Amino acid sequence: MNIHVTAKMLGNYDNSQRLLVTDKLTGTVTSAMGFRKDGDYYMPNTSLKTDMRTITKKPVQRIAAIFVKGFDDTKYRNMTYIAKGLTIDDNVLIPVMQDRVDKDNLKIVFPSAGR
Fold first, then answer.
1. Which of 40, 49, 95, 114 falls 20 to 30 Å from 18 in CA-CA distance?
2. What whole-number distance in Å separates Cα of residue 43 and Cα of residue 25?
3. CB neighbours (10 Å) of residue 8?
């Protein structure tokens, strides 16, 4: 899964599957990736071929944008996804992210047809 490009939604797992142990899910209507909390971070622990809306608590959150940075980078300089109909100028950044994204040097690294 290219989760940094394909994810469209985010939600809390609803514990509806007997053998599935995960906390958060992100993905689409055809696949999802699950994450478990490990300290301050969420680590991937499963991938599923399912509509994530059927196994998450409501409401599922729409992902507005996805930014990627290198481990040693101080600011995010790559955008791999932005929701259809939005632009970076639409204030898609939550306040805590305003200072973490290098908007002056931001590279858009996804195909325009995939939006």
1. 40
2. 11
3. 16
Q: Are 107 and 78 in contact (CB under 8 A)?
A: yes
- What is the arithmetic mean of pLDDT over 101-106? 86
Q: Which residue intervals of 1-115 are DSSP H helices?
A: 3-6
pTM (predicted TM-score): 0.75
Cis geometry, peptide bond prior to residue 59 (ω within 30 degrees of 0)? yes
Residue ranges per structural domain of the chain: 3-61, 64-114
- The sheet with strand 78-82 has its strands ordered as 65-68, 78-82, 107-108
- What is the per-residue pLDDT across 28-85, written as a single tens digit (0 to 9) for each? 999 999 999 999 999 999 999 999 999 999 999 998 888 888 889 999 999 888 888 8
Is the pLDDT at 114 greater than 50? The verdict is no
SS3 84: coil
Measure the CA–CA gap between 93 and 88, rounded to whole angstroms. Answer: 8
